[in-house]
Write a structure and sequence with these properties.
The protein contains 14 helices and seven strands. With 351 residues, it is mainly α. A three-stranded antiparallel beta sheet has the order 3-4-7. It has a two-stranded antiparallel ribbon with strand order 1-2.
Length: 351
């Protein structure tokens, strides 16, 4: 724990010829003018030790005894001209917030080490603001680099059809919906009948997500991950399928509801369709439900759709973010593009 002075005592050295009586002080006026003012000296020492120079007195009451006393609270200024110490603390806080991604429109992907370091930085920031330590020693620390990130698995449409056949029950057809719309599970579960749109063509208006507070926890409705609603066009083959799920329901009813009419939970759906047995049966036992979103990206990109269109379908903030995640899925199209470039024969001279 760094030592923090609770009071600052400033001793100003005066010339030897100076006496305690100002009227009898010796020395020239210039020498006396060069002497530091007490206020300036105190501010300089305060800044040196990172102490606020304009503290705000606050009355603190002890709830057990009722005793009151006055404590000084940092002013919290963000301008160095007003309070250098508080401004520096605010700057370090902003740096930490930027590293944690507070300025981003989407939630950054962080690992366990990054979350632990972010928590430590936040704790030390509060300790600095409370003047328990002089600086945040974790502000300049970098989290260890994470290992290779697991890439999503994209399956072919033939494998999608095989998976539907291998899954059990009427809810198995939701595999096709996920594989062709690219919806996250929470977005699929959060769809209501009123979210079906027909202008300019058939589609789904994705504007909410049904999330779980934890494994087996309560479900709650939240906004979509990007914070912006979007319309996902429906492939012609699944329009009748979606319409069957909407028949006889009110506009505010869940479109893809559980058998009892309530919201559909992913764990219950996987158990109902026997997901583990079905994925093992088609030869991809480690396939996740979220991998159907990667499958949709592969299908759309493989069909020649513009990356900007696929970005809109998947709900990513930018096309570059989408390409960073799914660009490897179009590697197989590189050679097809090369063959198309060589198609107009006779235009390129043979070397």
């Amino acid at each position: 724990m760094s030592w923090k002075p609770s009071a600052i005592v400033v001793v100003v050295a005066l010339p030897q010829s100076t006496t305690s009586d100002p009227s009898r002080a010796t020395g020239s006026r210039a020498e006396r003018a060069r002497l530091p003012l007490a206020r300036h000296a105190v501010d300089a020492v305060a800044v040196k030790y990172g102490v606020c120079i304009h503290p705000i007195p606050v009355r603190r009451v002890d709830p057990s005894t009722g005793a009151t006393h006055i404590v000084d609270v940092p002013c919290g200024a963000t301008l160095k001209s007003k309070c250098p110490s508080c401004a520096e603390r605010a700057r370090l806080l902003r740096v930490t917030q930027c590293r944690q991604g507070w300025h981003l429109d989407v939630e950054p992907v962080v690992g366990r080490d990054h979350r632990a370091l972010a928590t430590l930085r936040l704790i030390l920031n509060h300790a600095v603001a409370d003047e328990r330590v002089t600086r945040n020693v974790a502000a300049q620390v970098e989290a260890p680099r994470a290992g290779a990130r697991r890439e999503g698995r994209a399956i072919t449409m033939a494998e999608v059809n095989a998976l539907v056949e291998a899954c059990a029950g009427p809810q198995a057809e939701l595999v096709v919906v996920l594989a062709l719309t690219g919806l996250r599970w929470g977005e699929l579960a959060g769809l209501q009948v009123g979210d079906l749109v027909s202008v300019p063509d058939r589609g789904l208006r994705v504007q909410r997500a049904l999330l779980s507070s934890g494994k087996g926890g309560a479900l709650f409705v939240d906004s979509v991950k990007s914070g912006r609603a979007r319309t996902v066009p429906l492939v012609e083959d699944i329009v009748p399928l979606v319409d069957r799920w909407a028949v006889g329901k009110q506009p505010d009813a869940w479109l893809f509801a559980a058998p009892g009419g309530g919201p559909l939970r992913e764990t219950n759906w996987k158990r109902s369709v026997k997901w583990s047995e079905a994925t093992a049966a088609i030869g991809v036992p480690r396939l996740r439900v979220h991998d159907l979103r990667h499958t949709a990206a592969s299908v759309w990109l493989g069909s020649g759709a513009d990356p900007k269109v696929v970005q809109r379908v998947l709900g990513h903030a930018t096309a570059s973010m989408m390409m960073d995640l799914y660009g490897h899925l179009i590697d197989g199209n590189l050679w097809e593009a090369a063959r198309r470039m060589g198609a107009p024969r006779g235009h390129i001279r043979a070397w």
